[in-house]
C-alpha cells in the first residue's frame, strides 16, 4: 500500500472487512476484495496495477498504441508519433493530439466490429419506459440497421462530415441511435440535456450553427409531461433573431407522452421521424475520419454565464473511454450494464453510449424518473434485466436512502422506509456498483455498499470531468482495498499532483 502512487506512506489503524463477508461500518476503514473476486478480475492485484501503471507513465506512447492497435479497427494506422502536446501558451496554441494520421470511425468500432466478432444477436440496448410495463430492445445488428437508416436520412438533407447536429432528446433509444448515426457519417453531434430551457438551447444553436435539430414531441418524467417540441420551437425563434435559421427539425413521436395531433407543427420545417427515417436503407457507408477529427461538442455552463463548448476528437477519446470502462467496472461479456446518467451530460456520452458499446456491452436505457412510481423503481429495473453493473450519482444514492442530518424519529422512519424499497427486490445479479459526479460521502457509500450491494459489490467511485472525457481517478474493483468516500488511485496514464498551501 505504501508503494502505491498516492504518496500516502504508511497507513496506521487499519481496520478491514472482506468483500461479501461483512458490512462496512464506521470502524471498518477498508473493504478488501475477496480472493474469489480478485481471481476473476481483469486487474487482480496491486502488483498488476502497478506494473501497468508504471508502463503507462514511463512509456505512454507504447502503452496506448498497444491498446489502440490490438482492440480497435483502424482503416489506416497512425504515423511514428503516437501523441503530441503543447500546454505552454508561449509556444503557440494549446493542443493535445493522439494517433494523428490514423483513420478510423467510432460508430464502426461500436457496431460493425462487434457484429463481425459474433455479437450480431447480442442485446445492445434494453429500453425501459417511464411507465412500468412498457419496454423494448435492440440487438447489435438491429441497432446498426436503425443507425444506418438515420445516417442515410441525414445525408439526404445535406448533412456532411464536419457539420453540426443539435440533439435535444430524452432517454429514448433514439438518442444513442442519433449519436452513432452522426458519428458514422462524420457529423459532429451536440447533445443538449432535454431539461434545459429554450434560452439555453438557443445559445447552443447560435454557437454551433447546426444543419438540423433532432428532438421529440414530449417526454414523461414521472407523472409530469414535458413538451420538448414547444421548447425547441421557442429556441428556434430566438436563434433566428440572432441570425441562425434552421431548415429542418426532425421530430420523433413519443406516443406514450403526446400524440402527433396534439403536437404544434410548422410545415416546411418540421418532419416526423417515423414518416421518413424508416424508408431509408439499413446499410450506410462509413465516413472514415482522422483520429483528430471532431466527434462531438458538449457545452458546459462554465463561470462566464455563456455556455462553453468542449470538443472531443475521435481516436484518443475512443481508446480512453473504452479502456476506462473495461477496467474500472471489471467488464465481462456476460454483464448487463446500467448507467442512470442522461446522454445530455458527458457521463452519458462516455459511459452510456461509447465506452460500453466499444466493449460490446448490453446497456440499459431508462426514460423516466428514478423514484417513479415509487423509490423501488431502480431495483425493479435491476431485477428485471438482471443488471450486473449499476453506475449512478451520489445525489441519487442519497435521495434513495433518504438520509438526514439528525437522528430524529422522522429520519429513522424515513430510513426504514427506504430500506424496504430496496430489500423487497432481490438485486442478486449485481456484482459491481459505481458512483459518478460529486464526491460520495462515507455514509452514503456505506448505505450503497451495505444495502444495495449486500456488502458483496465493490464500488467504483470515479473522479473525472467533461474536459477529460473519461475517468482520471477510479478504483479497479479486484485490485485494491476501498475506503468509503475515497476515489483511491489514478487510472493508467494519469499523474496526480497535490498543491499544498501553507500559511505564514
UniProtKB/TrEMBL annotation:
Pfam families, from UniProt? ACAS_N (PF16177), AMP-binding (PF00501)
Instruction: Write down the InterPro entries for this protein, in alphabetical order.
Output: ACAS_N, AMP-binding_CS, AMP-dep_synth/lig_dom, ANL_N_sf
Q: Which Gene3D superfamilies match?
A: N-terminal domain of ligase-like
Q: List residues of the AMP-dependent synthetase/ligase domain.
A: 120-497
EC nos? 6.2.1.1
Write one Gene Ontology MF term. ATP binding
| GO BP | acetyl-CoA biosynthetic process
Is rRNA-binding among this UniProt entry's keywords? no
Superkingdom, taxonomy of origin: Eukaryota
Q: Where is the Acetyl-coenzyme A synthetase N-terminal domain?
A: 49-110
The alphabetical list of record keywords is:
ATP-binding, Ligase, Nucleotide-binding
The UniProt entry's sequence similarity note says: Belongs to the ATP-dependent AMP-binding enzyme family.
Output this protein's name. Answer: acetate--CoA ligase
Q: What is the lineage of its organism?
A: Eukaryota, Viridiplantae, Streptophyta, Embryophyta, Tracheophyta
Amino acid at each position: 500500500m505504501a508503494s502505491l502512487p498516492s504518496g500516502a506512506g504508511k497507513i496506521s489503524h487499519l481496520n478491514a472487512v472482506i468483500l461479501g463477508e461483512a458490512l462496512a461500518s464506521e470502524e471498518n476503514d477498508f473493504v478488501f476484495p475477496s480472493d474469489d473476486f480478485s481471481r476473476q478480475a481483469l486487474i487482480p492485484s496491486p502488483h498488476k496495477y502497478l506494473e501497468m501503471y508504471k508502463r503507462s507513465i514511463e512509456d505512454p506512447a507504447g502503452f496506448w498504441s498497444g491498446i489502440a492497435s490490438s482492440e480497435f479497427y483502424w482503416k489506416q494506422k497512425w504515423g511514428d508519433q503516437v501523441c503530441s502536446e503543447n500546454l505552454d501558451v508561449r509556444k503557440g496554441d494549446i493542443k493535445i493530439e493522439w494517433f494523428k494520421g490514423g483513420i478510423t470511425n467510432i460508430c464502426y468500432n461500436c457496431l460493425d466490429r462487434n457484429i463481425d466478432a459474433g455479437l450480431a444477436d447480442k442485446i445492445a440496448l434494453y429500453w425501459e419506459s417511464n411507465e412500468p410495463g412498457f419496454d423494448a430492445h435492440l440487438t447489435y445488428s438491429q441497432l446498426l440497421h436503425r443507425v444506418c437508416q438515420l445516417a442515410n436520412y441525414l445525408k439526404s438533407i445535406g448533412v456532411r462530415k464536419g457539420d453540426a447536429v443539435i440533439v435535444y432528446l430524452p432517454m429514448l433509444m433514439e438518442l444513442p441511435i442519433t449519436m452513432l448515426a452522426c458519428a458514422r457519417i462524420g457529423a459532429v453531434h451536440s447533445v443538449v440535456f432535454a431539461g434545459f430551457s429554450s434560452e439555453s438551447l438557443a445559445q447552443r444553436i447560435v454557437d454551433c450553427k447546426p444543419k438540423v435539430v433532432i428532438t421529440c414531441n414530449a417526454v414523461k418524467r414521472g407523472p409530469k409531461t414535458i413538451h420538448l417540441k414547444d421548447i425547441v420551437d421557442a429556441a428556434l425563434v430566438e436563434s433566428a433573431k440572432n441570425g441562425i435559421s434552421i431548415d429542418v427539425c426532425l421530430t420523433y413521436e413519443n406516443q406514450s407522452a403526446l400524440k402527433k395531433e396534439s403536437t404544434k407543427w410548422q410545415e416546411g420545417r418540421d418532419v416526423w421521424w417515423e414518416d421518413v427515417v424508416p424508408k431509408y436503407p439499413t446499410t450506410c457507408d462509413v465516413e472514415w475520419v482522422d483520429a483528430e477529427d471532431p466527434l462531438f461538442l458538449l457545452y458546459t455552463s462554465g463561470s462566464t454565464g455563456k455556455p462553453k463548448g468542449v470538443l472531443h476528437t475521435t481516436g484518443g477519446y475512443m481508446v480512453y473511454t473504452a479502456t476506462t470502462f473495461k477496467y474500472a467496472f471489471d467488464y465481462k461479456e456476460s454483464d448487463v450494464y446500467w448507467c442512470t446518467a442522461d446522454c445530455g451530460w458527458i457521463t452519458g456520452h462516455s459511459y452510456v453510449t461509447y465506452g460500453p458499446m466499444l466493449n460490446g456491452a448490453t446497456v440499459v436505457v431508462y426514460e423516466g424518473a428514478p423514484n417513479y412510481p415509487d423509490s423501488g423503481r431502480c431495483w425493479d429495473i435491476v431485477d428485471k434485466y438482471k443488471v450486473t453493473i449499476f453506475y449512478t450519482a451520489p445525489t441519487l444514492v442519497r435521495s434513495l436512502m433518504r438520509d438526514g442530518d439528525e437522528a430524529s424519529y422522522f429520519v429513522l422512519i424515513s430510513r426504514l422506509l427506504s430500506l424496504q424499497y430496496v430489500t423487497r427486490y432481490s438485486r442478486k445479479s449485481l456484482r459491481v456498483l459505481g458512483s459518478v459526479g460529486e464526491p460520495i460521502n462515507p455514509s452514503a457509500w456505506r448505505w450503497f455498499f451495505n444495502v444495495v450491494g449486500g456488502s458483496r459489490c465493490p464500488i467504483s467511485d470515479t473522479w473525472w470531468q467533461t474536459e477529460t472525457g473519461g475517468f482520471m481517478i477510479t478504483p479497479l474493483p479486484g485490485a485494491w482495498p476501498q475506503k468509503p468516500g475515497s476515489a483511491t488511485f489514478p487510472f493508467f496514464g494519469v499523474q496526480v499532483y497535490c498543491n499544498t498551501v501553507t500559511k505564514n
